[in-house]
Amino acid sequence: MAERGARLLVFFTSLIVLRFGGADKGSAIQEFTPFRFSVEPVDTLAVRGLPAVLNCSAASAAPVRVEWKKDGTFLNLVADDRKRQLADGSLLISTVVHNKHNKPDEGVYQCVASIDNLGTISSRTARLTVAGLPRFLSQPEGVSVRMGGSEMLSCEVMEELVPFTRWERDGRPVELDARVIQLPSGALVISNASQTDAGLYRCTIDALGPPKTTEEAELQVSADSGVEEKLETLQGPVSVAKVVGESVLLPCVMKGYPVPVIRWTFNDRSIDEGHERFTVIGGGSLQIVNLTEEDAGIYVCQADGGNMTSEIQAELTVHVPPRFVTRPSNTYAQESMDIIFECDITGSPPPTVRWMKDGDTVIPSDYFRIVKQHNLQVLGLVKSDEGFYQCLAENDAGNVQASAQLIILDLDVALPSTVPSLTDATTDHVASSPAERSGPAPSAPRDVVASLVSTRFIKLTWRQPAEPHGENITYSVFYSLDGTNRERVENTSGPGEMQVTIQNLVPDTKYTFRVVASNANGPGESSAPLTVATQLEVQVPGPAPNLQVVSVGPASVALSWERPVNGNGDIQTYKLFYSEKGQDSEQDMDVTGLSYTMTGLKKFTEYSFRVVAYNKHGPGISTDDVTVRTLSDVPSAPPQNLTLEVLNSTSIMVRWLAPPPGTLNGELTGYKLRYRKGLRRADAIEISTSQLLQLIDGLEKGKVYTVRVSATTVNGSGPTTEWIAAETFENDLDESQVPGVPSSLHVRPLVNRIVVTWTPPENQDILVRGYKIGYGIGSPHAHTVNLDYKQRFYSIDNLDPSSHYVITLKAFNNMGEGVPIYNSATTRPQSDPIDPDIDFYELFNNPYTPAPDPTPMLPPVGVQATVLSHDTIKVSWADNSLAKNQKITDSRYYSIRWKTNIPANTKYKTANTTSLFHTVTALKPNTLYEFSVMVTKSRRSSTWSMTAHGTTAETLPASAPKDVTVISKEGNPRMININWQPPTEANGKITGYIIYYSTDVNAEVHDWVVEPVVGNRLTHQIQGLTLDTAYYFKIQARNSKGMGPMSDAVHFRTPKAEPSDKMSSDQGLQVKPGHPTLPEHGIGSNMDKPGITGSRENHILVIVVIVSVGAFTIIAVVVGAVLCTRRSNSHQKKKRAACKSNTGSHKYKSSSKDLKPPDLWIHHERLELKPIDKSPDPNPVMTETPIPRAAQDPVEPSHQIQELEESVSTRRGVRPKIMMPFDSQPPQPVISAHPIHSLDHLHHHHHHYHLPPRGYLHHQISLRAPASPNTHLHRSPSAESVRNQPAAPEPPVAPSQPITSAELQKTEALIKEEDPPSINPPAAHIRPTHPLKSFAVPALTVSAHNPPTYETALPSTPLLAQPAPGVKTASIGTLNRARAPMPVTVPNAPDQSETSKMLDMTYETDELSEEMAHLEGLMKDLNAITTG
Question: Which one is predicted more confidently, 227 or 361?
Fold first, then answer.
């Protein structure tokens, strides 16, 4: 027993050790993550056209994501083909681009490294400078030097090009040494000259493409003649700034005889030339290597030339890059603590310091303060303060950065023993180690009160907790500004202390306090919050009374106020605060008097003003806000988007938009429209209107009218728009119908384009407002272009070589688009010569060219195009026929013309000016324009100058992505593919798309789900959608300037079931937000059927053969029946048969053993089968839909199959009335479909030559079963579809082998097994059997719940549905002629009770004789069909 007790003791001891010893929560403290830059970018000098690399590499144990910023903005490397990021994070610019007007690569770069869910750090910045164009600012000149003298050959270049310059003598490189040196300016200095130095010198710029050299200059070395020369300074020292560790050359080149002696002094002390870092080279220049901070000072070059002396001084400034004395350190802290990140920096000049948190700049506030110049203090920590903090220091010599990580621990986790960044107020607020806790924590302190409240401090006292649970109780006071969640903490000075004073509060402000007691087991419960407000500062001034604000002008207000009653001393100044209504920012200014007139405000804008008086104690109490609106003025901008639309020969519709926001300057009272006849100055007619459009009628035919519009306020009219011209029609043309087909279309294929020319429609009486060209590879619907009605040619550019393009052209007017004309062409192969530059303007608009003047003027030179914005380019030039000052003193003027090459047939636009520049406006964004200038003086004109090119800047996309379609992913109903085309007006390179989708089309934009897509993709997959749910999709394009407009919402409903029984998804439909959506397809919609193959010609042939065989079989049976029964016919029965035939109400008698053929009418013009229809639907609707469906139909439960079998055995089907129209000849049918205007159905329009995406359009003839109560329970409103069904896919049975009833039942059972009933509402189909039995055998009785369906192998003509209820139309037309639709009537049948099991149907023998007359017409139709 003792041994067993010992074992139990050991066991329980182990459990205690594991429970309490192993649960030390202090071991679970999150460790700091090593995160730093191993390589940072440095300043780089790049060469245009060559690659450049900015190195960057971040080191961490966690995965690091590296991004790059340029000039403070993140680079989009996906959209930039020239920039890419290397594996180590470095940035590679494959080809540096740099010119006078475009410097996209030059700037300040910064590397940003991030670790997901942890933080971000930024590297130091690096400037990328691109060497300019290799050019010389001056040329060296030939000089002569005495033996032993000094001379300098200048080579003045830009500072960044100096490293690339070198000198050559007689074609060979000059070797530099202590005697021959090259100055920082690029000049060559030769001292102690000898005859070997004579020769031809030239300066060369290398490494920037082909070497560029100056003109050669000869250096002559003459013998010493002994003649004295005066002292001449060729190059003296200049002030310069260098960085510690670099080298500097202070030039001092003197020329004279005798040869001058040069000495240097530094801060009035002679320089010891024996010092290893100081060397005099090149006859007197001072070179200092490895500069130190002590080398900064004044350097003087003293030259002694015998009888003359010279002194030149220069200051050397030595910059010291920033260097960390103390770096910020990683810190653990807990919420509500105050911490300080130290950052001690030295450098010269003194560096500027800024702090960043996770890549964002820290803005000083009440809780983030900069203390002791560079340190960052964070007050009242919250969990969101966790992350990486960086100290970045920068001066003229460089910049450095250092980072530290802040981890905020839970209150029950012990802080490390040393936390260097804690402030004095929180050093005692350290949780004890959980291992030391052995009991409960204290309860909440009691009776917390504010015993003393002042303006800037509050003293709190409290009582000990009711349950202290120990001794040495310490207290922590947490406080926060009322309304904020950021708490600060103040600890008591020692254990047992139950009061604390909170300092540095704001007067007249509410604070919330709570007290927490702590013992050896940790912090306990918190006291209830106590809210206390500090007192009002009594020493500051009160509010300034009687503040008056009056508007005295459209942009000025006058303010006045009185001195505060309780100023509490002398008022030093007043501060006037004002802000614009709706703006959060408030501006202020100091005012010394009691009034002030403020100017420069916005016109007709509401402002609020308040005044605060200041005395020696600070700001006083503010006055209440006074709101006033500045006075109105005339508009400062004209209306926008003025357009003219010629309606007919005597009227023009003018439309415009209001001036831009903020430019009305008052309440808009209306618009003034002025128009005149002709382009020249004439008497204009003025019209006033308050609308944004105006009809001008009563005009003359075939005349040009110009119009301009201005906006008006109560103050008058603002600036007007430019004159816009439009020409009325010569004659009134008909616009009640669409234009006809263009009479001709000609194409001329080239390598990369096709030139299209055409002639207008032959009927010139129909108005044509324009033409639309469609083109594409294999299809003319890929691209469309709208052209003016006067256009007769067009060049389709940017095509692929050796590609077959289909081109369509159609005219259009306000009624719609006319019939298109088609043509096709194959572009030439790439090996053919380059496309000629066809000038269509000169080709089709050959203007009259006067005889050239014998002495034409010189064209302008130096034409430059400077891009100002996305729609403005400034064109400037020089005129060599003017004086050098380029001042115009005569009556000459300049003509500027410009155009863009897209499209290629764009006409030139022109403008005239009398100055040497012109600003061209209203250009298209991101478009290349070419400009040329011509000068005219009197009757003399120059030729057009050389062209200058300029590409307008990008701007926001002006249109949304187009052709948005949504398609279900086959096999996965929860996934869709969304496709689109780029926006028509991209206004720049599309860098990405944003897809929005939601189940609520009217939801706010921020509530939609967002998925970004890169700009080079036009399709995207979206997964995880909900089945049987309506979704709405929008797409938005973006470029480098921002986001464009959203597309219209596209509606799509996901399928109802998983892939085993799902239907194929519908196409997306365009819907407008706020409008009701179109209904979905009913469950009875006809889907794609398998096994439908063959061309339409084969289908017609099979129909003809089957109908012919069936018709002849019918004739044979009928003739035989007539011959057998004619003997027993009586005259009375013939009368009765004739009467029944005329009234159309026959009585049939039949039994289950003797089946008689149904009633049959045969018309001469068309074949009609008219059995009686007992339809349960009082208003049947026939639909036609080409929506495809999967090959397998869904299967209903087994009890429906049993109901089908029971219904077949107990019921008899009745054949409905069917009309089968045929043409007398069997030409190629043209399929056309028209929608049925029904609230229950959704229809698609399919034009000629368009087939459904996944099957043929096929139709069936629907036979409905007899009515029953169950029929109404299982019928959908859109349940029926009428089809024309020719033959079945099974091989036809020979007429000599009739099908027996047993075979018929077997066939029916086989069909039931192969094609189980679907969820579609009842729709029975004509079953293909023996040709004779299709007439002689009555239809099989089918269930009203689940009738079997029979598929066809041939497509047929869809029915043309009409709006009239109960009547459907069908037509089969041809390519050359059309036939009027024929009605297919499905009469309603009366309801039958369940007890009515079968309908009596009897055929009397003598009744067939009445139909013989109709057989003759049938024979004629059949003969016409077979012979055709």
Answer: 361
DSSP per-residue string spanning 1202-1270:
HHHHHHHHH----PPPEEE---SS---EE---B----SS-------TT---TTS------EEPPPP-HH
Whether 888 has a pLDDT exceeding 70, the answer reads yes
pTM of the full structure: 0.39
Q: Which residues contact 1284 (CB under 8 A, 6 or more apart)?
A: 1220, 1259, 1260, 1261, 1356, 1357, 1359, 1370
Q: Are 540 and 615 in contact (CB under 8 A)?
A: yes
Dig out the tokens for 633 from the structure. 């003025």
Q: Which long-range contacts does 79-83 make (Cβ < 8 Å, 24+ apart)?
A: 79/989, 79/991, 79/992, 79/1015, 79/1040
Residue pair 446/369 in contact by the 8 Å Cβ criterion:
no
Range scoring the smallest mean pLDDT among 684-693, 1117-1126, 1240-1249: 1240-1249
| CA nearest neighbour of 1368 among 1077, 1173, 1196, 1206 | 1173
For residue 1124, the model assigns a pLDDT of: 67
3-state secondary structure (DSSP) of residue 623: coil
Distance (Å, whole) CA 1423 – CA 1377: 21
Beta strands in 52-179 (DSSP E): 52-54, 57-60, 65-70, 73-74, 83-85, 91-93, 107-115, 119-130, 143-146, 151-153, 165-169, 172-173
Q: What is the mean pLDDT of residues 903-921?
A: 86
CB 1275 within 8 A of CB 1269: no
- Is pLDDT of 469 > 60? yes
Tokens of 1397: 């099991």
Question: Distance between CA 704 and CA 730 in Å, rounded?
Answer: 11
3-state SS string for 963-1001? EEEEEEECCEEEEEEEEEECCCCCCCCCCEEEEEEECCC
Percent of the chain with pLDDT over 90: 25
Structure tokens at 829: 């192969």
* Range from 44-48, 391-395, 582-586, 1100-1104 that averages highest in pLDDT: 391-395
Closest CA to 612 of 542, 552, 669: 542
What's the burial of 268, exposed, middle or buried (CB within 10 Å: 0-12/13-18/19+)?
A: exposed
Residues with Cβ within 8 Å of residue 1373, at least 6 apart in sequence: 1229, 1230, 1232, 1379
Q: In terms of Cα–Cα distance, which of 547, 490, 483, 540 is closest to 515?
A: 490
Secondary structure letter of residue 1388 according to DSSP: B
Q: Residue length, the chain?
A: 1428
Count of other CB atoms within 10 angstroms of residue 1192 = 12
Highest mean pLDDT among 384-393, 1050-1059, 1301-1310, 1315-1324: 384-393
Please provide residue 451's backbone torsions phi and psi, each rounded to the nearest 5 degrees.
-75, -20
Structure tokens at 459: 């003293």
* Residues 778, 784, 785, 791, CA torsion sign: positive
Alpha carbons 117 and 123: distance in angstroms, whole number: 19
The contacts of residue 472 (CB under 8 Å, 6+ apart) are 495, 496, 519, 520
- Residue 836: what pLDDT? 58
Backbone angles phi, psi at 1162, to 5 degrees: -125, 115
Tens of pLDDT, residues 1187-1236 = 343 334 444 444 444 443 444 444 434 333 334 343 444 444 443 334 43
| Least reliable range by pLDDT among 524-528, 632-636, 1305-1309 | 1305-1309
pLDDT of residue 839: 53
Q: Comparing C-alpha atoms, which of 1352, 1360, 1354 is closest to residue 1097? A: 1354
Res 184: pLDDT: 86
Instruction: Tell me the backbone φ, ψ of residue 810, rounded to 5 degrees.
Output: -145, 145
From residue 497, how far is each of 448, 475, 594 by CA, in Å? 13, 8, 53
Per-residue confidence band for 372, with pLDDT thresholds at 50, 70 and 90: confident
